[in-house]
Specification:
Layout (H helix, E strand, L loop, with lengths): L7 E4 L21 H21 L18 H22 L7 H29 L11 H8 L16 H23 L1 H18 L13 H14 L7 H4 L3 H19 L1 H6 L1 H20 L4 H7 L2 H8 L1 H19 L8 H32 L3 H5 L20
Length: about 400
């Protein structure tokens, strides 16, 4: 049941550094977005601590007061909205144009794949020798091929890491991103939203009980509308002052109230079983929240998101998303049984042990496999002195990190 969780990830890298359409790189910080990304990644870790401690998801044996931790899927939706928003900031500032399809895809691959492949190797080792990542058994040769090619949203194979499903969804959306920008530029936001959303709604309405049953893959078409919601929302950074001064935070609250009210009335189990519709319904509120933060309001929230601990967490949130699940599963299934009883004692033990190990491990992992590729643009500069420091000890490529 680990598929419906999570991140992009950060799967979108820190969004405050965008590229101009001409290809010249500038640092134009959108304050607060990294903090949101870090908090979302931390929630995913808590979700997995909850998920693997208490069996029976979504109607699990956990105490009701912990139900707030069961919505890991919505964290992935937020990551996707944030990814679309982050990637579209620079194009929005330049007439919805980028500096070309090939440069964009090359930057995305350079930024996303090296840490993903490193995490894949780690996950395979843990799944083979410590604890399987799935009840389908340990990964196979097919798993290596499918996950190595980031094709797990198209082909099914035993997973080495249940959080990796969203990485493939992001990769497919990256391939579509230049086309989405073209439609936004030529036809406008309404047509773009209709093109990706109406087919999803139609599919939902013709399904049995108007609620399609999702499998482990082919999720990108369903989740494309939430990615596009973020893309369209990025237009706020280039909007007029009047638009930027609108109370976006209150709009986000108003948009979220019906979704939250329905979830409270129907219950958490119903909400999880109807994610197909909940994903679409919650995306506007998430987009407006990003618009609020991007325009600097509410100031208290932006100050909180830009505090050093939260900003730091956001800087390695992608690594945290990639490697936390094998650590959490190893603690719950291999370590905790030797020290505590099942249920709440295991959950508390996991929070005390797996949570800090995941965070500290992700920080170290990011220094080894993520930051070098954010700060350097070639293998030569990465390999030289580990890609972390220049010969005089000054961090290499400071201020040139790519999103």
């Amino acid at each position: 049941m680990s598929r419906p969780v999570s991140s992009t990830l950060d799967v979108a890298a820190p969004a405050g550094q965008e590229e101009r359409a001409s290809g010249a790189h500038v640092r134009r910080q959108v304050r607060g977005l990294d903090g949101l990304r870090g908090l979302a990644a931390l929630y995913v870790v808590l979700f997995h601590c909850w998920l693997y401690t208490f069996p029976g998801y979504p109607d699990s044996s956990a105490p009701e007061w912990l139900d707030v931790l069961m919505f890991g899927r919505l964290a992935v939706v937020f990551f996707l909205v944030l990814s679309g928003f982050s990637l579209a900031i620079s194009p929005a500032r330049h007439g919805w144009r980028s500096d070309g399809i090939a440069p964009f895809l090359r930057r995305r691959a350079w930024r996303i794949l090296p840490p993903y492949w490193a995490a894949l190797a780690m996950s395979l080792a843990i799944s083979w020798f410590v604890v399987p990542a799935s009840h389908f058994g340990p990964p196979t040769g097919t798993s290596i091929l499918v996950y190595g090619l980031v094709a797990q949203d198209v082909f099914t194979a035993p997973t080495p890491n249940g959080a990796f499903w969203s990485i493939a969804v992001e990769a497919e959306l990256y391939l579509l991103f230049p086309l989405l920008l073209f439609v936004r530029r030529r036809l406008g936001a309404v047509i773009l939203a209709a093109c990706v959303t109406l087919p999803v709604i139609a599919r939902g309405l013709v399904a049995a009980d108007a609620s399609p049953v999702e499998g482990d893959n082919w999720l990108a078409p369903h989740l494309a509308p939430v990615f596009v919601a973020g893309l369209i929302g990025a237009g706020v950074v280039a909007a007029s002052g009047r638009v930027q001064r609108l109370p976006w935070a209150w709009f986000a609250v108003l948009a979220a109230i019906p979704v939250i009210a329905l979830g409270v009335i129907q219950g958490s189990v119903w909400t999880v079983n109807h994610y197909f519709w909940v994903d679409l319904a919650v995306a506007p509120a998430m987009t407006m929240l990003l618009a609020a933060v991007a325009t600097g309001r509410p100031a208290l929230l932006v100050r909180l998101l830009t505090t050093r601990p939260i900003r730091s967490l956001g800087s390695f949130s992608y690594s945290l998303y990639l490697i936390h699940l094998p650590i959490v599963m190893a603690v719950i299934r291999r370590v905790a049984p030797h020290f505590v009883s099942p249920g709440l004692p295991t959950f508390g033990f996991t929070l005390i042990l797996a949570l800090p190990v995941s965070v500290l491990g992700a920080w170290l992992f990011s220094r080894l496999f993520e930051m070098p590729f954010k700060r350097n643009r070639s293998w030569r500069s990465v390999i030289e002195l580990g890609g972390l420091f220049s010969r005089n000890g000054v961090p290499r490529g400071r201020g040139r990190e790519e999103s």
